[in-house]
DNA sequence: CTGTGTGAACATCTTCACAGCT
DNA sequence: AGCTGTGAAGATGTTCACACAG
């Protein structure tokens, strides 16, 4: 399949074809009228724009169950991420290989960051250690941090942090599950009309993709 | 602090106070004019609406590193989730306790679901096993599935699936990182004006919260 | 003729600003 | 006087529909 139309891609992604074309148009005019998009060329252009063609060395700090799971996660390599180092505070872990990579001790954190030119760090430590690890990563030159620890991190201007809370997705499922159960029971007045209407509408969107309001704090 | 104003909450959450008030208003009129919101009452109302006051038994299928990490994750209990059972296909795992809960064998999946009245399942298996596990969960009565396996699951109408791809967040960080690096180098024409403008704007939003376009497939 | 690229119309979301309750 | 709750205005996002390139 050398070429693909916006219509086909839209159907596959479950969106409107006009939206897809408009989104693509922000990247440039990579399609051919009357024909569609050249698959290989399109994949390359999107990959480049998203930064997938670059090599991104990352370090994972905190090699517990989650850190190990991340180190073993296959999806990283295919998206340009290379696990440059695993770091843990437990001296007993030092030297032990996880996912084929020897764990190094926190003492060498700064040196590891600098030697590998790492700018993205993943924090998978317990909550108590996260801020301290974060500060050291930032001081050593890391400018993007993915935080799995259940804490809000304070970082200086210019450093990006994204927090992943594994329970939020479950919460969204539970929210919809709750409404599946109480569908017609809504007549008992438990939900004040507007909320019921808003919720009904959210559920009508395809699947449970209506996220929790942006206002809800993590 | 018995009471709190929309202004205070908005500042804490980093949003506009009008937005916060409007969002709250969809749940009902729980504030007092001239005073603010009663903290305890507000927390209860939001919790109830989100389903946090209910007890949600969940099963985790696939007790590798990720499954174990999830089983140990503290955030679940505080949000009404109870890990009712851990299930794995490896007979050697059966009976071994993880996070204080004995792992059970996949053979008993249907019985476990039914005995515990489970309606939410978490899939943390390898990609190859995910669809099969999903089918069995659905057949046994599960109606919401959180999928960590890197596959798209097919489910019948009425079943909700949410997919978590741990590399997407990293990808978003890398995207912004890429633009931090090539900020003024954009003059070399690598980015077609519109995309550069759109990207610049997204970055100007607080933090890296500008997500990847909805169109991008997982 | 087919299917992109895009102004214009429409829809949704956010913010403003203020009436009205406490 | 202070702060909510909410219409109306403004901003942003999505879809329509069609001119035009191949």
Provide structural commentary.
Chain A has 3 domains: 3-49, Arc Repressor Mutant, subunit A (Orthogonal Bundle); 56-164, NAD(P)-binding Rossmann-like Domain (Rossmann fold); 167-205, no CATH class. Chain A is built from 8 helices and 10 strands. In chain A, helix 1 (6-13) crosses helix 2 (17-25). In chain A, a hairpin with a 2-residue loop joins strand 6 and strand 7 (101-105). In chain A, strands 6-7-5-4-8-9-10 form a 7-stranded mixed beta sheet. A 3-stranded antiparallel beta sheet of chain A has the order 1-3-2. In chain A, 39% of the residues lie in helices and 18% in strands. Chains A and B meet through helix 2, helix 3, helix 4, strand 9 and strand 10 of A and helix 2, helix 3, helix 4, strand 9 and strand 10 of B. Chain A binds a DNA duplex (22 and 22 nucleotides) through residues 5-7, 16-19, 21-22, 24-25, 29, 31-37.
